[in-house]
Structure formats: C-alpha cells, structure tokens
Design a protein that fits this description.
Distance between the termini: 24 Å
CATH superfamily of the largest domain: DNA-directed RNA polymerase, insert domain
Number of helices: 5
CATH topology of the largest domain: RNA Polymerase Alpha Subunit, Chain A, domain 2
GO molecular function, one term: protein dimerization activity
Protein name: RNA polymerase alpha subunit
Largest sheet: 5 strands, antiparallel
Shape: elongated
Pfam family, one: RNA_pol_A_bac
Number of strands: 13
Helix content: 10-25%
Number of domains: 2
Mean pLDDT: 82
Keywords: Chloroplast, DNA-directed RNA polymerase, Plastid, Transcription
Structural class: alpha+beta
Radius of gyration: 23 Å
Length: about 270
C-alpha cells in the first residue's frame, strides 16, 4: 500500500492525503503523511507543525457585539428576550465562520419577535460564510425589535484589547476557539536501500472554518514567514550581484493571492 509507494518516492519530502472526511458541519477530519524523511527529521517537523497548527492558524471570529438598546453591562437582561446579554454573547461565540479575506468587517442582525434568532438571521458581507446557520442566538418572546451590530475579524489567537466605550458600547466576545480542534501525529520507520528513513503521519480535526488541508497550508506558510527573515543578508553586501531569492518571490506571490482571497489548498 503506502509503503510500496515510498520505494519510488522522490528524495524530497512530500505531503500526501491518506484520508479526508466530513463528520458534520463542525467536524472535519484529515489524515496526512510526510515522507521520505531522514532519521530524526520527523520528530523535528512534527513538533513545529503541530504547535503551529494549534496556535498560529488564523480563524474568522465575531469579536464584538453592539446592541441597539441602552445596556449597562453584559449581565443585563432585556425585556422580551429570554437570554441575558451574557448568554447571547456566549451563543455568538459558538458561531463558526469562514472567510478568505483579512481585515475587520461588519455584520448585523435586524429582526422582530416573537421568534428564535439563529445564525441564519445574521446579515453578512458576501466574503464571509456561516458554517452552521442553525446555531441558536436568542429567543424573542415578545414583538420587539432585535438589532445587533457585529464586528468580524480574521486573525490568529484572538485576544481582547482594552477598550473605553462610554455610550455606544461594543461588548467583546473572548475565548473564541481556533479552527484546529486537535492534532495527533505518529512516526514510522522503514528501510530504504541501506538507510533508515521515516514517515510522519498527521491526524487533524477542524471545526469547519478551515478544512484540514487548508490548515496544513496555513501552518507551513506561518513557519516560512517566521524563518524567511532569518535568511536575509545585509543589503550592502554585493547587492547588485545578488540573484533573486526564490523564497522572496514565493512570499510576494503568496501575499498577492492573500489580497485576492486565493491560495488555499483545495
């Protein structure tokens, strides 16, 4: 099976998708291999890629919510709504979004009760998609308007900044989960010619905001973004004689694709 393919593999390591499935809208699974690797390289790659997958992959989140009504704090209750403001914020936190564009975007909810408000009621920019539009937000028990303005951002390891909002207050939504839910890896040794080589197997679970394939792409680029600056040399050393750095060309191409919302591994 896969071991037979290793005999004809090229000397440089390559990714290969071994299994990919969608268990539900919020649960995607992928299993991938990297091979061939020299003895010891698999562990080095595994630690770096796993940490990057869990901590550095960017996700799209609802980060702030502003209610039209005058609300003093997040534990306030609103007449005609079953949930408190805090409960509504926690429900908004559970919404999984997908976007290929960066920056801050606005969305809104404008509806009238009585009704159950779900993620389907959110009015979004065309570049943003809701993964599961059945997510509950609030229960309106009376005929009252429910108007909420939302801020949406795509970033990594979302953290709340201190904000001073006197009247027109935006409530922060913290503790948002990252796209990658879990990562496992295993290392397998095999004999090739007279050398002992290794194959690295990754198992990745995501929440649907990104597929496992896309998280691998993002993780590898995050590692490159960290390492490439270390390869730069002083500009005054034979500047005119230097050949173009292929890594810098690849990075420029990636930035162009990022601005156009392209570049994901499909």
């Amino acid at each position: 099976m896969i071991w037979n393919e290793l005999k004809t593999a090229e000397s440089s390591p390559r990714w290969k998708c071994l299994e990919s499935r969608t268990d539900s809208k919020r649960s995607h699974y992928g299993r991938f291999s990297i091979s061939p690797l020299l003895k010891g390289q698999a562990n080095t790659l595994a630690i770096a890629i796993r940490k990057t997958l869990l901590q550095e992959v960017k996700g799209t989140y609802i980060t702030y919510a502003r209610f039209q009504k005058n609300i003093l704090h997040e534990y306030s209750s609103i007449i005609g709504i079953k949930e408190s403001v805090h409960d509504i914020l926690m429900n908004l936190k559970q919404i999984v979004l997908r976007s290929e564009l960066y920056g801050i975007h606005e969305a809104s909810i404008c509806t009238v009760g009585p009704k159950n408000v779900t993620a389907q009621d959110i009015i979004l920019p065309s570049s943003i998609q809701i993964i599961d539009d059945t997510q509950h937000i609030a229960s309106l028990t009376k005929r009252i308007p429910f108007n909420v303005t939302l801020k949406i951002e795509k970033k990594k390891r979302y953290t709340i900044e201190n904000m001073k909002q006197p009247k027109d207050i935006f409530f922060p939504i913290d503790g948002v989960s990252l796209p990658v839910q879990n990562v496992n890896f295993s290392i397998h040794s095999y004999k090739s010619s007279d050398n002992i080589q290794e194959m690295l197997i990754f198992e990745i679970w995501t929440n649907g905001g990104l597929t496992p394939r896309e998280t691998i792409y993002e993780a590898c680029w995050s590692l490159l973004d960290l390492i490439i600056p270390l390869l730069c040399v002083e500009q005054n050393i034979k500047n005119s004689q230097k050949k173009p750095n292929p890594l810098s060309l690849v990075t420029k191409d990636r930035n162009k694709k990022k601005n156009r919302g392209e570049g994901y591994v499909k």
